[in-house]
Amino acid sequence: MVTLTIDGKQVTVARTATIYDAAKEAGINIPVLCYAKKLLPYGACRVCLVEVEQMKGRLIPSCTTPVTDGMVVTTDSEEIRKVRKTVLEFLLVNHVVECPVCDKGGECDLQDLTYEYEVVANRFQGEKFDLPTDEVNPLIERNMNRCVLCGKCVRVCDEIVGYGSYSFINRGFETKIATAFDRGLDCEFCGQCVSMCPVGAILPRPFKFKARPWQLKEVDTVCGYCGNGCTVTLGVKANKVETIRFNDKTGVNDGNLCIRGRFGYSYVNSTERLTTPLIRKDGQLVKAGWDEALAAVSKGFKAAGKNLGIITGARLTNEEFYLLKKVAATVGTTNLDHSGGECYKGVTEGLKQTLGVTASTATFPQVEKADAILAIRSDFYETHPVFGMVVNQAVKRNHAKLSIVADKRGKFGKLPDARSLVTKPGLELNVLNGIARVLLDEGLAVTDGVAGLDELKKALAGFAPEQVAAATGVTVDALQQTARELAAAKNSAILLAYGLPYTAYSKELATAAANIAILTGNAGREGSGLYLCGEKANSQGAIDLAVLPGNQGLGAQAMLAAAAAGQVRSLYIVNEDPLVSYPDQGKVEAALAGAEFVVVQDLFLTETAKQADVVLPAASFAEKDGTFTNAERRLQRLHPGITSPGSAKTDQAIFQALLVSLGDKVVYTGTEAIFDALKAGTPYAGIGYADIGLQGAVWGGDHLTVSKQLVPVGGGATVDAPFQLVTGSALYHSGTMSTHASGPNAVISAPYVEFGREDAAALQLVDGDMVQVKGSGCELQLQARVDNRLPQGVLFAPYHFASAGLNRLYKGEASVAVEISK
User: How many CB atoms are closer than 10 A to CB 28?
Assistant: First the structure.
């Protein structure tokens, strides 16, 4: 620790702090334009100049100057104010003054400083910038005439996002920030640059001219998309979410968001939202009142009894999951499941049998300090972009050694010194077994207190590095170096995402990853962790609350088969569109046709809802009160920012009304009462509702105590065909919900099939060509996209779009053999 004096006030801070950090900790304000707490010190704007007694004769930037013991600092004097005013005058020489029409008005740092330092005239004259405004893309507007060259957009895109869209070009008075070759912006559209810009140079286009900041009500809640659990601050006006506000003070994401979190909110305002219940009469869905709809649902469920099947998505709150389980218990059914019934088995079965837990073993911030990282599946960045930004920082700032086991190249592979172990689809298991074999063969494995070692050694007899290399295409050296780096790391992280398009080998991949965690000493070690991250916002909550088949109950896939056979009489489908998102569309169609009574509860009239007998209109995350549990076991509060359209209700309100209709006498006074009731028998037992503060509450602490049971798993299987198709998530979408949002749809609004450049050249394809994809007895017509991340013979298609009909092909396999024709 270091003690210094700032404006006569003695302050003790960490030795790594800067003068600016120390002043902030002491409650002393120093103006800044180029500083951001999550970016490395830069010192570009010179607005934060201060005087240090030991450095008389010059002013120094407080944001880049480290503190020293005994330092005496003055942050405000006549000379300092005069210099700061001069700096502001220089910035305004070329800066266009168009505050009345600039959306940044009212929260512009330059505007505020100009007012504070009374810059009412300018002693310096110069030609105002007259650069063209970049409005090429649909989400972000760039007006470089307003830029102050703070470099925050350049730095956040490089340091945090790892994309590098921006750079300084030219010199002197001609300096400006631009993209490669000064073209229009074409990037991930995460909007990090928007949140960092201190002026109106980079703005969100969907919010243009919608409101001034003081007109917005700000409501902190949790993003409703993936399991990262990012805090989003809703900017609400007239009961409408107009924008997402920057907030780096609340939650786990440090203000970082992806395109879905920043621009994917618009579906909550959609005019296509369901606003009233629907009941099928004479073959048509017609509007009905809630009393009539609930009476019909209650009657149908009572008639089905134990033959009712309940399938839900994983975007309900914990409180709603609890009430849904009560609905099942009240009806008398144990047929309850979520997320397709298969993809989460890596957590519920794979981790359970190896580590004795059913959750990630550590928290996200620890990954920043990792020395080695193993990411399984290149799609991890696509499914969990903000967690991917944490990996970016670990590699760029902590020089972590990153290895990626995947069937295609991805963004992680572009990070410094990253190693991509690109294997044939379906053979990721072989690669993981090969890494485990190297750990054992080279004496690198930590085996103290480990059970099942002999059995694992026998099972790995066929996974020598040379054998794995021959089967998968991954080199022996890559297997060995990955194993050695993981073994040598003091802190390590192993990452695996799961979700509906990643059904194949879910349990086996998690088991193999856990074996490596045990052998490298990662399992249970402080600073290290194995992270299994769910596709949906409350995937972990669904597991914690056991939204799973009960005693003799059927899982989702078994329910669908039983419904098709007439054995499950009724289906209750909540917050999911299985006709689009579940593997094997034919199986879902048969189930919906075979069930006597189908109830769908959703925000939109989805493809599945169109087949229902009763449709109940539900609420979005922006209308809910309750809790989500993210992939690091962190409970966080949702707060409603708007009311639901028409007579739509929250799932919590629907379940409570349904329970009353079914005869349940228990009445809860509010969300807190439901949370208190659900805690018994769950990991949340020691957490009070009031304990879930701004940063949430992590059950089990930063590190879970684990067992160490090695469990052998065999290898995977690949398809022997000229072309094989894999599916998964696209960066811009999450599940099917984002396809109702104008932001993500502005970037990708239609299905496609992606080709590597070699295959595209051989087939004489270019971007935009329509191709026929034949396989599994059906044929799809999709638009071609050409990129350089796919190995020869491997194609990719995202699963989000109803119009694609992709699950007519995909039935849960690692890959599907297909034929391609134009």
Answer: 18
Q: What are phi and psi of 656, to 5 degrees?
A: -65, -45
Above 90 in pLDDT, residue 126? no
The amino acid that residue 63 corresponds to is C
| CATH fit for domain 343-533, picks 3.30.559.10, 3.40.228.10, 3.30.470.20, 3.40.50.720 | 3.40.228.10
Report, as an integer, the average pLDDT of 498-513: 95
| CATH architecture for segment(s) 724-821 | Beta Barrel (2.40)
Q: Report residue 385 as tokens.
A: 């972009």
pTM of the model: 0.95
DSSP string, 164-199: ---EEES-GGG-EEE-GGG----S----HHHHH-SS
Phi, psi at residue 783, to the nearest 5°? -80, 140
Helix-helix angle 428-441:465-472, to 10 degrees: 160
Q: Give yes or no for a contact between 307 and 569, defined as CB atoms under 8 angstroms apart.
A: yes
Q: Indicate the Cα dihedral angle 725, 729, 732, 735, nearest 10°.
A: 120
Number of alpha carbons in the 13 Å side-chain half-sphere of residue 296? 22
Residue 609 pLDDT > 80, yes or no? yes
Question: Is residue 235 within 8 Å of 719, Cβ to Cβ?
Answer: no
Q: How far is CA 563 from CA 360, 567, 611, in A?
A: 34, 6, 14
* 5 membership: H or E segment, kind and range: strand 2-6
CATH number of 278-340+540-698: 3.40.50.740
pLDDT of residue 173: 85
Tokens representing 49?
């100049």
Rounded distance, CA 265 to CA 249, Å? 20
* Closest to 358 in 3D by CA, of 674, 676, 700: 700
Q: What percent of the chain has pLDDT over 70?
A: 100
Tens digits of residue pLDDT in 777-812:
999 999 999 999 999 999 999 999 999 999 999 999
Own/partner pairs for 60-66, CB < 8 Å, 24+ apart? 60/19, 62/18, 62/19, 62/20, 62/23, 62/30, 63/18, 63/19, 63/20, 63/32, 63/34, 63/35, 64/18, 65/18, 65/19, 66/15, 66/16, 66/17, 66/18, 66/19
Please tell me the distance from the alpha carbon of residue 32 to that of residue 29, in angstroms, as a whole number.
9
Take residue 617 and report the two structure tokens written for it: 């209109």
Among candidate residues 639, 708, 713, the one with its CA nearest the CA of residue 672: 639
Q: Which contiguous run of DSSP H or E holds residue 780?
A: strand 778-787
Phi and psi, residue 780, nearest 5°: -115, 150
Please, which pLDDT band fits residue 520 given cuts at 50, 70 and 90?
A: very high
What residues form DSSP beta bridges with 60? 50
CATH topology for 2-76? Ubiquitin-like (UB roll) (3.10.20)
Residue 473, SS3 per DSSP: coil
- Is 15:4 a contact under the CB 8 Å cutoff? no
Structural contact between residues 401 and 371, judged by C-beta atoms closer than 8 angstroms = yes
- Whether 378 has a pLDDT exceeding 80, the answer reads no
* Alpha helices, DSSP H, located in 520-670: 539-544, 556-564, 578-581, 585-594, 651-662
> What is the model's pLDDT at position 603?
98
